[in-house]
Amino acid sequence: YNGDMAVPGAGLNLGGDATQVTVSGSDGKFEFSVNSGGNYNLALSKTAESPANQGVTTLDISLIRRQILGIEPLASPFKPIAADVNDSGSVTTLDITLMRRVILGMTNTFPAGLWKLVRSDFVFANPQAPWTFEGTRTYSNLTNDVAGQDFIAIKLGDVNGSWTLP
Q: What is the pLDDT of residues 73-105, one digit of tens each?
């Protein structure tokens, strides 16, 4: 979410009038071929990351502390999503504790997983409370090619957006 970086290895599940599964390529791109006129749902997931703590640092913990203490709010809707590693719908000290465990290698995941994916054209009703968002796309009576169906990948724990390809 902090730049225009491709995220390879995201799982794409197409459902509806056709069912297909694929994985985004090294360039982050994906493609499906379906019958014209169909109705489809597209959902993404990304569960693996090696190492799991890629992009998650003590700087992220510091940013979360500043948010919790009211010193400096997390400026974009993607940052609180990244900070909420336990998927509680808020940013708390428990998130910090869970992030420490991943940073130290005591565990290799968060209760909410390692990634969240948001439709790139999604508009948050309340950017300060971005807990409800759309991570799928729906197509009704699809008759033409559809390009630019991007998603924003949020690496959980990576509040400052420092993740890079391992």
A: 998 999 999 999 999 999 999 999 999 999 999
Give, in degrees to the nearest 5, the angle at Cα 104 between 101 and 105. Answer: 85
Most distant CA pair in the chain, distance: 53
How do residues 104-132 score in pLDDT, each as one tens digit? 999 999 999 999 999 999 999 999 899 99
Q: What is the DSSP letter of 36?
A: T
Which residues does residue 22 pair with via DSSP β-bridges, in sequence order? Answer: 12
Rounded distance, CA 52 to CA 28, Å? 19
Q: What DSSP character marks residue 22?
A: E
Nearest CA among 45, 140, 157 for reference residue 101: 157
Q: Tokens representing 73?
A: 């709010």
Cα 66 to Cα 5, 71, 74: the distances in Å are 27, 5, 8
